[in-house]
Amino acid sequence: MGRTADYSKQSCSIAAALEVIGDPWTLLVIRDAFSGLSRFEQWQEHLGVARNVLAARLKTLVAHGILEPRVYSERPLRHEYVLTKKGKDLYAVLLTLHGWGSKYMYGDGAGVAIIHKACGNLLDPGLACNCCGEKVERRDIELVKRPGKPVGEIMAELRAKEEAA
Amino acid sequence: MGRTADYSKQSCSIAAALEVIGDPWTLLVIRDAFSGLSRFEQWQEHLGVARNVLAARLKTLVAHGILEPRVYSERPLRHEYVLTKKGKDLYAVLLTLHGWGSKYMYGDGAGVAIIHKACGNLLDPGLACNCCGEKVERRDIELVKRPGKPVGEIMAELRAKEEAA
C-alpha cells in the first residue's frame, strides 16, 4: 500500500506487514502462488496485470524473501518463483480474507471454494492460539501498548540486513 | 487497493475483500477502531493521514456496512464511527497480519503487543475451523475451482442493494 500511504511513523506489526504485502496486486500474486502458479506468464495471464507492475511486485517479494527464484530453463535463462517459509506463513492472512469475503460479499459463489478436508465442509476460518491450541475469539485477546520502533526504522534495518547478506 | 489494481474480472473472495478493505489506510482505520478510536480527529491525529483521504475511507467503510455512524453531539452535529458485526469480523484478518508482521518484521518489538488472555502469552495466531473446531494447517485445506461471478458483478449487485435499501 506504500504508494499512497506512509506508515513509516507507525510502530505496528500490521502496518509493517502492509508495507510489504499491502501493495496493489501483491496479495493476489501470493494467492496464486498458493494455488501453484510460479511463472511470470502464468501470473500475467491469470491476473491481467501490466507486465511492469507484475515484474515490480515479484522483485519486491523476492527482495523480502517471500518468493524465491528458481532456474527452470538454462537457455534461454528463465526463473520461476516459489513461496518460501515466510511466504507460506501468509496462508492464514489469505484464508481469513477469503473467509470474510465469502461471508460478506460472495456468499458461497466465488470461483474457488476452500474445503477443510478434516470435516469436509467449506472452511469458515477462525483463530487458534499456536501456543496453547485454544480457539481465540476477539474477547480473548488483550492489546498492550509499549514503546516500539517506527516502521520506517524497521524497514531500514531490514534493507541493511539484505544488503549485508 | 482499487486505485491501481483492477480485480473486477477475478472471481475470488480474496479479491472481493481487497476491493473493499485493501485500500491504502483502510485496514489501519479498522485496526484503530478495534483499539477504541471512533472519531475523525482521533484517526487523523493517530494516523497522520490527509483529512480528505480519511474522510473518503470512512465514507467507503460506512457504505459497505463495516463502520456505523452514531451521533455524539447534536449541536454542532457530530458523528462517531463504530464497527458493525461485519467490521468486527475482520479481527481475524488483522490478527493474522499482526502475527506475520511480528514474526517476520518486528520480532516482538512493535508498539502494540497482543496477549492471549487464556494462556498469557503473546498471541501467535493460527487458524481453526469454526465448523469442527480443529486447528487448520495449510495441508488441511483443498482448493476447489468452480464457476463463479466476477468481482465487478458482485460489487455492482452490492451497490444496487445499498441503493435499494
Question: Can you describe what's shown?
Answer:
2 copies of one chain form a homodimer. With 165 residues, chain A is α+β, with helices and mostly antiparallel strands. Chain A has 2 domains: 83 residues, Arc Repressor Mutant, subunit A; 58 residues, no CATH class. The first copy, chain A, has 7 helices and 7 strands; from the N terminus they run ααααββααβββββα. In chain A, the strands form 3 sheets. A two-stranded antiparallel sheet of chain A has the order 1-2. A two-stranded antiparallel ribbon of chain A has the order 3-4. In chain A, strand 1 and strand 2 form a beta hairpin. Chain A is globular and about 55 Å long. At the A-B interface, helix 1, helix 2, helix 6, strand 3 and strand 4 of A face helix 1, helix 2, helix 6, strand 3 and strand 5 of B. Strand 3 of chain A pairs antiparallel with strand 7 of chain B, so a sheet runs across the interface.
CATH level-4 homologous superfamily of the largest domain in chain A: Winged helix-like DNA-binding domain superfamily/Winged helix DNA-binding domain
* Beta-strand proportion of chain A: 15-25%
Span between N and C termini of chain A?
26 Å
Q: How would you spell out the order of helices and strands of chain A?
A: HHHHEEHHEEEEEH
Strand order of the largest sheet of chain A: 1-2
**Count of individual domains of chain A:** 2
Q: Enumerate the spans of chain A where pLDDT stays under 50 for 5 or more consecutive residues.
A: none
CATH class annotation of the largest domain in chain A: Mainly Alpha
- Write the CATH architecture name of the largest domain in chain A: Orthogonal Bundle
Overall shape of chain A: globular
Measured as a percent range, the helix fraction of chain A is: 40-55%
* Assembly state: homodimer
**How many H/I helical runs of chain A?**
7
From the helix content, strand content and strand pairing of chain A, which structural class follows? alpha+beta
Number of beta strands of chain A: 7
The largest inter-chain interface, given as chain pair and residues per side, is: A-B, 91 and 90 residues
Largest sheet data of chain A: 2 strands, antiparallel
